[in-house]
Hints:
There is one protein chain. The chain is mostly beta strands. The chain is built from 6 helices and 29 strands. The chain has helices spanning 2-25, 125-130, 312-325, 369-372, 444-457, 472-477, and strands spanning 48-49, 56-70, 84-100, 103-118, 133-135, 145-158, 161-166, 191-201, 204-211, 245-252, 258-265, 274-283, 286-299, 302-306, 334-348, 357-366, 384-386, 394-396, 400-402, 409-411, 413-426, 429-441, 484-495, 501-514, 519-520, 527-528, 535-536, 539-540, 542-555.
Amino acid sequence: MKLVKSLLLGSAAGLAVVGGAQAADLPVKKAVPIEYVRVCTAYGAGFFYIPGTDTCLRVSGRARAEYGYIGSDNRRVTGGGDLSGFVGLARFNFDARTQTGYGTLRAFLRLDAASRTGHTKTSSGTNLRGGYAFSGTGQDAFGRIQNFINVDKAFIQFAGLTAGRASSFYDFYAHDFEIIGSSLGSDLPSTNLLAYTQKFGDGWTATISMEDPNYRKNPLFTNAVPAAGAAAGTGALSQVLTTAPTPIILGTDALGNATSVAFIDAVQRSRLPDFVGALRYDAAWGSAQLSAAVREINTGGFISSVGVPGTGATQQANAQALLAARGLGGGVAQTEYGWAVQGGLKFNLPFIAAGDGIYLQGSYGEGTSFYTGINRFTAGYLANASVYAGNPFNQYLADAVVNPLTGKIELSSSFTAVASYLHYWSPEWRSAFYASYGEIWFPTGARQATSQANALVNSPNTVAPGSYLTNPAGFATSQSLRDTYQIVTGASLIWSPVKDLDIGIEGQYIRTGVKSGRVADQDKGGFIGSGNAQVPTRTVSSEDVFQARFRVQRDF
C-alpha cells in the first residue's frame, strides 16, 4: 500500500509540474489600457482631444424659441395676413482643430433646423427661395407653416485658406446686437466661397474671396403681365420659372408707345463668381474694415415677339433682324457689372460699462442690393415685395432693368447706413439701440421707356407704369421702379440670469416711402378711367409698420 501511495503521489506531482510548464508557455493577453478623454487647452475652453488623435474638438449648440408680432392693414391677403408668428430653432456646432507645421488646420460645421409658423422674418419666403425651407400644404397651412434645415457653415481653414460654406468676407456688422436682425445693412449668414487671408501683424489682415453669386442675386425687373391679345407665353412666367420675359421696343406709334416688341430672357445665369476684397484692422479699442465687391449681371437671349409682322419662324426671324438693326444681335445676351463698397467701425466702450460697444457702417452699390442690404427687411430674391400684408404699395428692389428703348442693362443704385449700440445696465441686463436708413433708385430713362411698353405688354397699372407720354398722371403715381427710402430702427431689453441663457424682447419701427411725389394706394384705393389712361382714386407717400419679438435662447 505504501508503494501504491508513493506511485500515485509521484504521478500527481509530475502532472502538476507538466501542467504548470504548459501554462507558462501560453501567451498572456494584457488588458487594453483605458484611454480617457483629455482636455485640450490650446484653443480655449470646451475643446477635448478626440481619443487616439491629436485633433481637438469642441461640440456646442443652441436652442431658441421666438414669438413675434407684426402689424397688418389687411387680414385677407393671399398667402399672408398673419399678425403673430412662432419659431423653434435647433443649432449644432462642431469645431475641429489640429496643429500642423503650417499652422492650425480647422474644420467647422454648423447645422440649423427650425420650424416657423405665421408671420415672422426668421423663415420667410427668402429662406424658401434660397432653397432650404419647405411649407405646409393644408388649406390653413399653405405657405404659413415652414420647416427648414440649413447647412449654415461647413468650411476648412488652413494656412490662410478658407474653403466651403461660410460668412461672406464683405460683411462686417452682421446684426450682432439684434434679435430680429433686419436693420438695413449687408448680412449674408452663409455662402459658398474660396478665400485667402494674409496676416500682416499688428492686427492687420487682407482677404480676397471668390464667392457664390447665387446668394447675392436679386432679379432684374421684368414686365410679366401680358395685356389682352399678347402672345401666349410672354407673361406671368417671371418670378418662378426659368425664363422671365422683358420687352425691347421694336416699333412705336405716333405718340411714342410700343406697337411691337421682342421679349428677351431676363433671368440671370451663373457665369462668374462674385469677387470680394476686404482690409481689416483689429485692436483692443475695436475693429475697422473696408470691403468691396464686384459681380456679373447678365440676361439671356431672344424668346418671342408681339406685333412683329409674320407668323411662326418668319415672325421670329423678322424680330431678330430688327434687333440686329439696332445693334442688339447675337441672341441679345448681355453682361454688365455691378459693384459695392462698404466701410465699418466698431468701438469697444468698457469705460461706460463692461461689454459695451457701438457699430457704425455704411455701404453703397450699383446693381448690388444684397451687398448694400437695402432689401434686408423687405425681401431677398424678389424684384419687388410688400413691406407687410395689406400694405399700400410695394418697394422695388431689382438689381437692374433692361431699358426697353435701348435694350441695354441699366443698374439700380442703393446705399444704407446703420448705427447700433449695446449697453450693459448690469452684468445680467443689457439693451441694444439701433437705427438704419437706406435708399434705392432707378435710371429715369429706363422707367420712362418701360412705361412706353406698358400698353402692349402689360395690363394697366400693374408692374409697369402708365405711359408718361399719354397718361402722365398714371405714370407719376405708379409704384413701379419708384425711388424709395426705408427706415428701420429698434431697441431691445435682454436678461441673462445665468450664463448662456438669454430672455429678451425687441421692438422695431419701419417706415418705407417714395423719395418724391406719391403712389397709388393699392390697399384702400381704386382706379378711375379706362385702359391705360387709368388714374388712382387714393394715393400715399409712405407706409409704417411695427413689429416685436420675444426670445428665449440657451447656448451650450
